[in-house]
Backbone:
């Protein structure tokens, strides 16, 4: 592989890692506060659909960005209502929202735009185009958000409380803080970041929403988070690894490997999922999750 | 605390109220896409039950949902959430197709037992990977089964693109099975003998779960793996077997879809049935009888939805997927919301 080839693979990796990193940042806040972030996929899908719709209607990517965050926050709020306010099963709720988003987005898309469930193709003014180094604004925003979120989680008072809620909510309550409020705030951040991830897919990386356009990236982001043992830096590394597998997938198609022959497209497509499985099985082992993750919290009366 | 309700409320009134809430939101969705909810409901009920053809289709869809629902419910009773029914059904379909393609001249009743065994083994094998990873390595089964779904989809597409594709046929499907292998159908509908198989499997699951020592161990593991271990129950082995048994049930979807209707292996022949299984299991409270009833309801939803899309070009199968999500939300995640007022009403 020549140097320009290598650079283009690296650029593609960064581009493809952006939605994964944004989503896993969102998942980080949610899971560290003790709420399973299985609904990332649905939040991203809702965000992507809202971004595609609003960009097509308004003609500008900025209101689309806001709409994407709003839609994903709405999904996160439903998750909060079910699991924080009513102590419903977090995994079931996340799965329900993912399936709901899978069905709802093409249904509304078909009703609003009559294009088989997708949103209209977007022109250059309606998207975030590459601004420098072949990367869009959202890529740079993500690079900025990474240290910012790290600071928020590890160096701010809010972050300390958030992590405490995920480890021992009863202690947080005994300190006079509202567990419910902190968990809703975590979900708000999660929704906003997952919405950005969806917007990146629909109006930066792509030119409009297409059905199922997240294609499991929400699950991959969650897997990266678990693989990173719920810490930001290793989770980002895992996101980059998945993105590299994805970038190589585009390169490897049609390439003939010695002794194997042409690698079937589907094998390469399965690579990120297979990598996730192997990583979860081999390296994480029994990683220590936030102690209160997935456990419904009941306020003392 | 979770209030305990009398059985009538717990198993009839509460699920009905949750379902009504989900359908209420569905009505709003119909309004949003410009379809009158009343007319839509009429069309769906008429389509699902109004003719013998409609009933046939409803029961045909229900057949696959029973298999998919059991695939979720049996591991759930052991405390594990198997989201991999979709992939397990896909992979179960591959050996079913191989058995059918290998025995062209045989009568269907001779091939059926072999195909059933093949499908169960295929689904089991695909379920075994996440099961053993969960028990031995602590890899979360929800994530691993989702990954296995994606891998199954890639595997099936690859097999149909490169290995099993019918020569000269542009679409990704295998050569048709011999005519002698087609399962007998009812009155020109896709309803076939797999429906009886599904009822039999549900009955066996009920016997196994509620009337065997092994079923007792399985449910005990689900209640508390710690306590089960203390009682000398091999909780890990029990959990692996429960997930594999779920996979075996999922593997039977291909019997209904391929030997009953498609008569060949087709790419993505499961078309989301595995995910409907989650809704069916939650609505049926993970009880085999409840699953059969919930499957009938979802069968009616699917068939009614298909009828509806003839009248309204803006209504597609996606609407039913959205309803699927709403039912999981209301019957699963939001089940406590209505439980409290119901309990208060009961106490009053």
Residues:
């Amino acid at each position: 592989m020549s140097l320009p080839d290598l650079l283009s693979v690296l650029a593609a990796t960064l581009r493809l890692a952006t939605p994964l990193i944004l989503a896993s940042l969102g998942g980080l806040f949610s899971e560290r506060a003790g709420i399973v972030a299985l609904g990332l996929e649905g939040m991203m899908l809702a965000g992507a659909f809202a971004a595609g719709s609003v960009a097509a209607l308004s003609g500008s990517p900025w209101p689309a960005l806001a709409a994407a965050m709003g839609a994903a926050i709405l999904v996160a709020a439903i998750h909060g209502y079910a699991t924080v306010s009513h102590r419903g099963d977090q995994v079931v709720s996340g799965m329900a929202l993912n399936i709901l988003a899978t069905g709802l987005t093409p249904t509304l898309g078909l009703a609003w735009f009559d294009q088989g469930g997708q949103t209209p193709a977007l022109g250059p003014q309606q998207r975030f185009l590459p601004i420098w180094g072949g990367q869009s604004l959202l890529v740079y925003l993500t690079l900025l958000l990474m240290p910012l979120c790290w600071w928020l989680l590890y160096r701010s008072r809010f972050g300390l409380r958030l992590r405490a809620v995920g480890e021992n909510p009863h202690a947080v309550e005994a300190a006079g803080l509202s567990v419910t409020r902190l968990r809703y705030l975590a979900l708000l951040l999660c929704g906003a970041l997952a919405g950005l991830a969806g917007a990146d897919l629909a109006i930066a990386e792509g030119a409009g929403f297409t059905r199922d356009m997240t294609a499991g990236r929400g699950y991959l982001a969650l897997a990266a988070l678990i693989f990173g043992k719920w810490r930001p830096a290793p989770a980002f590394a895992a996101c980059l690894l998945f993105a590299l597998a994805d970038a190589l997938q585009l390169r490897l198609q049609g390439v003939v490997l010695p002794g194997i022959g042409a690698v079937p497209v589907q094998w390469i497509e399965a690579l990120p999922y297979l990598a996730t499985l192997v990583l979860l099985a081999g390296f994480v082992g029994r990683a220590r999750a936030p102690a209160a993750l997935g456990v419904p919290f009941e306020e003392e009366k | 605390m979770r209030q305990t309700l009398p059985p009538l409320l717990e198993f009839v009134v509460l699920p009905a109220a949750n379902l009504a809430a989900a359908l209420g939101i569905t009505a709003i969705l119909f309004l949003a896409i410009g379809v009158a909810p009343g007319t839509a409901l009429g069309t769906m009920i008429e389509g699902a039950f109004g003719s013998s053809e409609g009933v046939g289709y409803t029961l045909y869809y229900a057949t696959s949902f029973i298999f998919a629902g059991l695939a979720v419910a049996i591991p759930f009773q052991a405390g594990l959430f198997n989201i991999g029914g979709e992939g397990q059904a896909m992979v179960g379909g591959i050996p079913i197709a191989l058995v059918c393609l290998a025995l062209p001249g045989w009568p269907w009743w001779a091939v059926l037992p072999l195909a059933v065994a093949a499908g169960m083994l295929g689904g089991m094998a695909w379920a075994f990977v996440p099961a053993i990873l969960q028990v031995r390595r602590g890899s979360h089964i929800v994530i691993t089964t989702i990954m296995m779904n994606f891998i199954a989809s890639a595997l099936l597409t690859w097999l149909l693109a490169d290995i099993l594709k019918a020569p000269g046929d542009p679409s990704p499907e295998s050569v048709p099975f011999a005519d002698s292998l087609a399962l007998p159908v009812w009155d020109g509908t896709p309803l076939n003998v797999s429906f009886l198989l599904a009822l039999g499997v549900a009955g066996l699951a009920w016997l196994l779960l509620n009337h065997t020592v092994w079923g007792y161990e399985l449910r005990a593991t689900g209640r508390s793996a710690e306590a089960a271990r203390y009682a000398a129950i091999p909780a890990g082995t029990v959990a692996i077997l429960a997930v594999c048994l779920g996979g075996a049930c999922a593997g039977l979807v291909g019997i209904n879809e391929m030997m009953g209707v498609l008569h060949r292996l087709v790419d993505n022949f499961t078309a989301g049935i595995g995910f409907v299984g989650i809704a069916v299991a939650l609505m049926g409270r993970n009880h085999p009888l409840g699953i059969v009833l919930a499957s009938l309801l979802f069968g009616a939803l699917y068939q009614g939805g298909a009828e509806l899309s003839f009248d309204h070009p803006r209504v597609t199968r996606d609407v039913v997927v959205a309803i699927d999500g709403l039912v999981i939300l209301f019957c699963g995640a939001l089940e406590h919301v209505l439980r409290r007022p119901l309990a208060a009403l009961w106490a009053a």
